[in-house]
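To whoever picks this up:

The parser on our side crashed when reading a file containing two proteins. I've narrowed it down to the boundary between the first structure block and the second sequence. Both blocks are reproduced below exactly, byte for byte. First block:
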Amino acid sequence: MKRLLVFIVFLVLISSCITDFGEEPEYIHFNNLNVGQRSFYVRLYGKEYGNTASNIYSLIPDTLVVSVIGRDSLGFVFEEHLTQYSQKKLDPYNDTVSHRYHVRIAGDTLRVIGHSHLFYSTYLARPVLQLSPIGGRRFELTGWKISGDPFRQVDLWGYVLNAKVHDRTYPRANLFISLFEFDAYGPPVPWSNTVGGETYIYSEEYGIIRSRMVGKPAFDEGLCWDLVLR
């Protein structure tokens, strides 16, 4: 019941955001990126990442608005902000200030330049995403977990079929998992305390479908931004 009430609050907040902007804009397409496109995301909070038998997560009343507002020599200019009534307590940047950054698409590659909520590790000059459909390993998405979630420093590429994110099922999407060692917690300790990173589920048609960040000193929590399409 509690989860249902939170979900209803999300719908109200998102509907009010879209109403504020007037006519509903086109969502962000990586295969046809244009100024004026806008996508909305809601947040999931997941627990016990390292426990493969667990899949505990909950919705948080945070809404992220991502807009394409311009284009220059560096690429497309993106602007994003958390809405006024977002909780923000679990946000790494904990603000409602608008952030602007660049998304550059060259051939089959997308690169992010600048500070972003949606693209978590841009301070490491990442991510660099392949846009065309990726073959290789197939992953399954269940709740906020992914089959074969790694627990070590690694970069994995693959795809998911029929991925259910928020209230929509996506027939096929690319997947990129990147885990890396943190050095902010002092001397080396067992991997379970030092490794964290990001996951992106995305496609050329829908842009970022889910971005996920995992990793804290206990390495048992994660945050997701899930695309919401009307």
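<<boundary where parser fails>>
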Amino acid sequence: MTSLRNLGIATVAGLALATGSLVLGGGAVAANAATPAASTTTSSTTCTLAQLRTDWRASSALKTDLKALKAMPAGKDRRADAVKIRAKALDGGYGAGVEAKATWRQDNKGTKLRPLPANLKSDLKTLHSDSKADKPAEAKKIAAGALSGTYGATIESFAKAVQGSCTSGS
């Protein structure tokens, strides 16, 4: 498994929610990376680790679009393409995870997730060093803390976006 430090806050939050086997629900939406949504069942769904890993990674379509955008010369056409990419992310065209990130970023302009709060960093280090058997309980604790505001309002709002992305599409 990839080091938790390399997964980024979005994936770590998602992994904590998934590993904790929390029943996820709600809805949220935001810009910048991931693929198709996890499937939903009835009124609630338990996200799996595999679903969140897939949902929160940049889709190949988004990567291709961003690479093409970067290769374009600065100017009107490049700005127009950037607007199209952002709109596609917000509309779920790159998947529910990207949609959730894009919407969260749009709703929280100027808000930064990093640096992470010290208590969240500490808890993530504990999770990383825990035995395989202890990881689900620690992840559930982190997820519950993130959703309840233990790590601050910014992390809480982002955790709720992660939670909502698991059930926002299929």
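After patching the parser it read the second block fine. The chain is about 60% helix and 0% strand. The two ends are 25 Å apart (CA to CA).
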